[in-house]
Amino acid sequence: MTAEFVRPGESPRSTLPGRPSPFVLAAGEGERAHLFDQLFTVLLSGDETDCQFGVFTMEAPRGRAIPVHAHDDVHEIFYVLDGQVRVAIEDADGEVLDRVLTTGDFGYVPAGRKHTFRVESLRARTLGVSTGGFERFFAAAGERTEATAPPAVPVIPSAEQLGDAARRFRNEFHHDVRLID
């Protein structure tokens, strides 16, 4: 399959069944979106799991930390497939767990906790699992794409687009909070 740009508002052909049904994906398949300097690929959505969970990958070059955010009803995990990713998570007491995760390392963000991450190596890939439905935030906040690599030029959503996606997916940004220097 050749990479092609999908304009905002258009839907690329979905490789996911959209209902609980057995399926397989070849390497690189899934629903892809660019957001900031990252490529997100949804491998399994809430549609296929009766909203139990979603599974996605993130690939990105070394860059800046994503905005600190929290989602009250979404649990999230980070499993580093390749590279180094700094994860910072605020616990219930306001203390920050700040760790560089390397290939094979795992991190968990309970619902409601402020968190952020930043790629520390030249490039990194993670596997993420979240409460079902949230995995579609990335396409809503960014741009759907058929590309199989992170964007050459970062995709920076407008404040309106990011705000709308945040409201739709119950994602609260904390632009005044820094968890990673």
From TrEMBL:
Indicate what this protein is called per its UniProt record. Answer: Quercetin 2,3-dioxygenase
Organism classification: Bacteria, Bacillati, Actinomycetota, Actinomycetes, Pseudonocardiales
SMART domains xref list: Cupin_1
**CDD domains named among the record's database cross-references:** cupin_QDO_N_C
**Native source species:** Actinomycetospora succinea
Q: Which UniProt keywords apply?
A: Dioxygenase, Oxidoreductase
Q: Which InterPro entries match?
A: Cupin_1, Cupin_2, QDO-like, RmlC-like_jellyroll, RmlC_Cupin_sf
Question: What GO MF terms are annotated?
Answer: dioxygenase activity
Note the Pfam families from the entry: Cupin_2 (PF07883)
